[in-house]
Amino acid sequence: MALSIRQAAPGEGVHWVREAFRLFFKRPLPFATMFVAFLLVALLATLVPVVGAVAMLMALPLLSLGFMLASRAARSGQPVHPGLFVEPLRGDPERRKSLIKLCAVYAVGTVLIMTLSDWIDDGSFERLQRLMAKGDDNQAEMEALLADPRLVWGLVTRFGLAALLSIPFWHAPALVHWQGQGVAQALFSSTLAVWRCKGAFVMYSLAWVGVIAAFGALVGLLFGLFGARQLAGLIAMPAGLMFSTVFYVSLLYTYEGCFSAPGETGTD
């Protein structure tokens, strides 16, 4: 099938976020159930050394594709459920094979990024995570780690390369599943689409920053008026789950905003 890549206007990035929230609030419980179910499976997978971690890394492209399928289902009034995560693996054997290859490539890329970052920061990031989990009892050691330049460079490498890795994989699962593209072609098409629509993705990112910042300010203000700022953290987890879920719901809108059906205006 011919595929056209659009050059989305910058303002469309805000539209993607707005439509994702609108769709989420039409079916909040099913969408939230999907995300929580994935988190529970991920938690159980961590109990299996090495294999569990690799399996969850491979499953991340299926997470984004599953939510795209769920968003389409929600718009057409069909059921939204966790089974949609494995629905792509039940279809055409060639597409299933390409999708598994894509998941494996993503896992390898992520492992390489983590390995390089750990080498650069000499394990400082991992030690910082352990100290943060323990609480404030190790404040001096935590401050020493934060002042270590190796940690800074490790974080820049970790998150910078992770952002670059997300570009070719942003649309790739959907291109494999819906368009039947091979792994290399899907990665290239996704990269080209993100580049062509970079203005929209900048506004998309800024819209998310604005939404989260506004929510944090509003929560802080409300709890401050009641003199209970220390309780604001109680809604951090449910809010984080909601925003994460809406983000995955928005992926369908980014896909549809970057690609047009045959016959529509686009760049072949």
Produce a short descriptive summary.
This protein is mostly helical and 268 residues long. Helices cover 75% and strands 1% of the residues.
Break the fold down into its secondary structure elements and pairings:
Blueprint: E1 4-5, H1 12-26, H2 28-45, H3 51-75, H4 93-121, H5 124-134, H6 139-146, H7 149-169, H8 172-179, H9 183-196, H10 198-225, H11 236-258, E2 259-260
Written overview of the protein:
The protein contains eleven helices and two strands. It has 268 residues and is an all-alpha fold. A two-stranded antiparallel ribbon has the order 1-2.
Count of β-strands: 2
What is the global morphology?
Answer: globular
Largest sheet: 2 strands, antiparallel
* Rg for CA atoms: 20 Å
The run of helices and strands is EHHHHHHHHHHHE
Can you give the helix content as a percent range? over 70%
Structural class: mainly alpha
- Number of H- or I-type helical stretches: 11
Gap from first CA to last CA: 11 Å
By oligomeric state, this entry counts as single chain
List keywords for this structure.
268 residues, single chain, 75% helix
